[in-house]
Amino acid sequence: MLKNSLNILILLLASTAVLSCSDVDSDIFERPDEELVISISGTASDLSTGEPIEEIKITVHAAEYGDKDNVNLVSKTTYTDNTGRFSISAEGFSYTTTCLVTAEDPNGIYADASQEIKISWSATSMQGNTFYVNECDFYLEKNQE
Questions:
Q1: Tens digit of each residue's pLDDT (9 = 90 or more) over 24-46
Q2: Among 9, 69, 116, 120, which is 20 to 30 Å from 109 by CA?
Q3: Which helix H or strand E contains 24, and what residues bound it?
Q4: Who contacts 136 (Cβ-Cβ below 8 Å, separation ≥6)?
């Protein structure tokens, strides 16, 4: 009896982990009453020294595909502060969303970098109507002189 209960508990925990970490078919869920927000924060640092880099241009390009005729595209830009930190958000989503976050040095000292983030809206990743992506960090390499 204890072994069966343990097996059921393990199966439930594994199912929860798979649902929260995998790409979820958005058609399974009802469309939310309010628009959802993606909030991304992180740092930009020099790859070799680890020092923060100020004034790096951070852009998030978010795309949500409701169906073939309904595509929601959002682009937002910010710059890192004097500690290399940034925070940026994009709103107006309700299904699975793909984001491309880019880091560009307007001064041309550092090479550009990017990260792709695929977001499946789930209660485990949400706080209110906001999905938080923390530690979206960039370690930028200096361009060859």
A1: 333 434 445 567 888 999 999 99
A2: 116
A3: none
A4: 40, 41, 42, 101, 115, 117
What b-and-e string marks burial along 14-46, b requiring 16 or more CB atoms within 10 Å of the CB? eeeeeeeeeebebeeeeeeeeebbbbbbbbbbb
Q: Is the pTM of this model over 0.85?
A: no
**Which domains does the chain possess?**
34-140 (2.60.40.10)
The owner of tokens 């949400």 is 126
CA distance 102 to 87: 13
Name the DSSP class of 8: H
Looking at residue 132, what DSSP letter applies? E
For residue range 51-104, list pLDDT tens digits in order: 999 999 999 998 877 666 777 788 899 999 999 999 998 887 776 788 899 999
Burial degree of 64 (CB within 10 A; 0-12, 13-18, 19+): buried
Contacting residues for 46 by C-beta, under 8 A, at least 6 apart? 52, 53, 110, 139, 140, 142
